[in-house]
Amino acid sequence: MGIKQHIQTRHFERLAALIPLSPNTITLLSVISALIAAYMIFMNEVAYGLAFVLIAFVFDSIDGIVARAKRQETRFGAYLDGVSDRIVEFFILASMIGLGWPNTALAISSLLIIMGFGTFLTSFAKAYADHKGVIRKNQVQKLSCVFERAERSIFIFASLLIYLANPTYSMYLLSFTALLSVIGFLQRFIAVAHLSGFLWHRPRRK
Predict the structure, then answer these.
(1) CATH C-level class of 1-96
(2) Dihedral of CA 35/36/39/40: which sign?
(3) For the chain, which end, N or C, has fewer CB atoms within 10 Å of the first or last residue's CB respectively?
(4) CA distance 191 to 206
């Protein structure tokens, strides 16, 4: 289970209700901040890019809290939030490909694995299980893994921060992030397979 499930966001809802922006506006600001961050990183202005990465992740963290605080939760809002999450991560990770890594092949492969297994497949495994009705709705809502988006965002931010001082250590952290992304996807996929009865299924006796 990720750290997000352990954070009691209701303590911040009183403050969130004072924010003079709608949840969807905050979500869009997260995307805009990520695009600016991606441009800065692509231009090798990592320090400035890092600031906008932090802003993007903060906006992304509070849009749901604001929605609950203002009682403005909608299905489209949840959909927009999920799509924007993927966009934010994709552009930030894609922009990091062009940085000056000591081992280009290792860095790029790590970034692609994070994008594929972390940004997309981990959430897809959950969404598609729900879409196809493979498991029950309450089971879908309880699906979690050891490396959720909150943890992945922290690791991405940390790798950029470390890059400013030591690109080699940053690259190793990205490789570790890639490994955890694969583990997170496999954990969720196996959980769906198990809950659906595909794994360890015993045929009924006649």
Answers:
(1) mainly alpha
(2) negative
(3) C
(4) 28
Exposure pattern of 171-185 as b/e (b: 16+ CB <10 Å)?
A: bbbbbebbebbbebb
User: pLDDT tens-digit profile of 62-93?
Assistant: 888 888 888 888 889 889 988 999 999 999 99
Assess contact for 125 and 185: CB atoms under 8 A: yes
- Confidence (pTM): 0.87
144/2 Cα distance (integer angstroms): 7
* Every domain of the chain and the residues it spans: 1-96, 102-206
- Please say whether the beta carbons of 89 and 53 come within 8 A: no
DSSP 83-141: HHHHHHHHHHHHHHTTS--SSHHHHHHHHHHIIIIIIIIHHHHHHHHHHTTSS-HHHHH
Backbone angles phi, psi at 24, to 5 degrees: -65, -35
Give the residue from 146, 149, 115 showing the smallest Cα distance to 30. Answer: 149
Kindly tell me the burial class for residue 3, based on how many C-beta atoms sit within 10 Å of its own C-beta (0-12, 13-18, 19 or more).
exposed
Displacement of CA 157 from its chain's centroid (Å):
12
- For residues 53 and 92, what is the distance between their CA atoms, to the nearest angstrom? 8
Express each pLDDT in 167-197 by its tens digit.
Answer: 999 999 999 999 999 999 999 999 999 888 8
